[in-house]
Specification:
By secondary structure, the chain is of the alpha/beta class. The chain contains 8 helices and 19 strands. The chain folds into 3 domains: 104 residues, Formyl transferase, N-terminal domain (Rossmann fold); 99 residues, 3-Layer(aba) Sandwich (Rossmann fold); 93 residues, Roll (Methionyl-tRNA Fmet Formyltransferase, Chain A, domain 2), CATH 3.10.25.
């Protein structure tokens, strides 16, 4: 008996664990194709590059479709392939009604949050930035409104105090696999899995990150500054303005401490650059100047003078 046909929509590396799991169980689902964002020009050389999911499909010999705008033609193709189920995660395109209705069993999205919290484009990053101690992934029905579909189940993931965005993204990506296994056993492919409406009153939004989000606001509480640096470490990074030069920060630590200094004042500049913020001190252990590389603070400060009493601006 031929396994039901599956089409996967995704573009980000967070999708790779579930893709690996799908090709390891071809008797359960037949991964017919991957739909992903088109190759883009990236880097200083502006060379054409594939996103992680597209690269995975090419490596594993899975048919790859990369429409600039998915629509009726793709929906018709899915119907011709007798697609039973479409799985979506971190794809980056709106999926219209024709696409949603093309699979006979349904189209389901793995959303990287504990819905209804953090609907939107950057749920992991905003969960970290807001000091959450856990996040997760939810299996939901794809509907017209963004991340508003009924939810079948969630898999929870702990956010450790030192976890940066990349670490949490890896955890969430791995959590998709057991979530999917549970939902399949509970009758997803037989259309017996129960889905429950989200509590819209409890919904929060996780908007897309902007470059400006990386600018450190030294007036914020010290733990918030630290959380935002962790959250934005992958992109856009965190940085401060010193004499009209944007200095990027890497590894850092924080402590609560009462002081009367103006926010952004440098307390010490040695093994770390220690700066007064709201209710405490943030200590930057790694720094990077424009065009340079990330250096330990001691090495950076030997070639770039910042001294106690200087004021960093936000």
């Amino acid at each position: 008996m031929t396994a039901p046909v599956c089409v996967f929509f995704g573009s980000d590396a967070i999708c790779l664990p579930i893709l690996d799991a799908l090709i390891l169980t071809p008797d359960r689902l037949q991964l017919r194709a991957v739909v992903s964002q088109p190759d883009r020009r990236q880097g200083r050389g502006k060379k054409m590059s594939s996103n992680p999911v597209a690269a995975w499909a090419k490596k594993n010999g899975i048919e790859l479709l990369q429409p600039e705008k998915p629509g009726a033609e793709l929906a018709q193709w899915m119907q011709q392939q007798s697609t039973a189920v479409a799985l979506v995660m971190a794809y980056g395109h709106f999926l219209n009604r024709a696409l949603r209705q093309a699979p006979t069993v349904g189209m389901y999205n793995f959303h990287a949050s504990l819905l209804p919290k953090y609907r939107g484009a950057a749920p992991i990053e905003w969960a970290i930035a807001n000091g959450e101690r856990e996040t997760g992934v939810a299996l939901m029905q794809v509907v017209q409104a963004m991340d508003a579909g009924d939810v079948a189940a969630v898999e929870r993931v702990e956010i450790e105090p030192t976890d940066a965005a990349a670490a949490v993204r890896r955890k969430v990506g791995q959590a998709v696999v057991p979530l999917f296994e549970r939902c399949v056993k509970a009758g997803l492919m037989r259309q017996e899995l129960a889905f429950s409406p989200q509590d819209t009153a409890a919904a929060t939004h996780a908007r897309k990150l902007k470059k400006a989000d990386g600018l450190i606001d030294f007036t914020l509480p010290v733990e918030t500054v630290y959380n935002r640096i962790r959250a934005f470490s992958t992109w856009p990074g965190s940085f401060f303005d010193y004499q009209s030069i944007l200095i990027k920060v890497g590894r850092c630590e924080w402590r609560q401490e009462q002081h009367q200094l103006k926010f952004g004042t440098v307390l010490s500049a040695g093994e770390a650059l220690c700066v007064a913020v709201g209710g405490g001190v943030i200590s930057f252990r790694e720094l990077q100047r424009p065009g340079g590389r990330l250096l330990p603070a001691t090495e950076f400060l030997r070639g770039f003078s910042i001294v106690p009493g200087d004021r960093l601006t936000d």
